Amino acid sequence: MRRLLFLFQYIVNPRTVGAILPSSKFLADKMVEKINFRNAQYIVEYGPGTGVFTEKLLEKRNPKTVVLLVENNKEFYILLKEKFKREKNVFIVNGSAENIVNYLKEYHIPYADYVISGLPFASLPKTVSLKILLNTTKILKKEGQFITFQYTKFKKTFIEQFFTKIDVKREIRNLPPAYVFNCSMSQNMEEYYGV
């Protein structure tokens, strides 16, 4: 059922869904492996889709950790609301990650320790990607990390405009195989963006 919904949403919204199938559990493991779940107080996820990464986050998090999900697709949003309705400290927004600064204010979240992203930067309009990444640098705490995956390394140079350190790992047990980018900022970049 989840795969059919994903395929349908890809056909209807190929630029924003970005994949024919949901991410594999192997990719989900790689996306969350660098997260310090004991200390993380606030985790944000962009484009959770059907919730493959979200399930991993909720399975491993400290119960007090607040998780904010931002999903632009209405069908996925409805699915996520139903799926995680019994979870405490989980907030789900139907909107664009471009507006993440406003969503944090709305839910009284002071910053993000980690931002996990399933957004397809290769197919999003450049202006949208720029705004999302710039606003991500504004909400991340000093040692915070932005973790995203892409199907190619094509957007690595683009993301490096915002994050000075990017560790790349490949996960071949995903259809298609994917690259996980663990991104962080140096002190100089934080000062530059006024974080």
TrEMBL record:
Q: Which UniProt keywords apply?
A: Methyltransferase, RNA-binding, S-adenosyl-L-methionine, Transferase
Short name of one Pfam family:
RrnaAD
Q: Which domain of life is it from?
A: Bacteria
Q: Where are the transmembrane segments?
A: none
Q: Which InterPro entries match?
A: KsgA/Erm (IPR001737), SAM-dependent_MTases_sf (IPR029063)
Q: GO: which molecular function terms? A: methyltransferase activity
Give any single GO term for biological process: methylation
Name listed for the protein in its UniProt record: Methyltransferase
